[in-house]
Design brief:
Blueprint lengths: L8 E5 L2 E5 L4 H9 L3 H8 L3 H9 L7 H11 L3 H4 L7
């Protein structure tokens, strides 16, 4: 397994083209935490799909309260989870 952190990359795998998205900082934090996404989402009281959307950047809507909870679970600052909260 390898991690891609640059641009979207297309790659041929057994004759199929797949698009690989770059990792987001939040996804990297969740991956490095060693916690299961189901456990994280249960502790936050959100659906696993919501957590997935936050990871992939498909849905930017995360409340301050959810950001504080997620930061506590991951052991990081709220700014690491939601950079727009920097300095607030």
């Amino acid at each position: 397994m390898f991690l891609l952190q640059e641009k979207n990359i297309s790659r041929m795998v057994r004759g199929m083209a797949i698009n690989l998205k770059p990792l987001t900082p939040l996804k990297e934090r969740i991956d490095c935490s060693g916690l299961k996404r189901g456990d994280i989402s249960s502790r936050l009281g959100v659906a696993r799909t919501t957590l997935w959307r936050w990871e992939t950047g498909d849905d930017a809507h995360m409340t301050v309260r959810q950001a504080i909870g997620l930061a506590g679970i991951l052991g990081c600052s709220t700014e690491d989870v939601r950079p727009d909260l920097k300095g607030k």
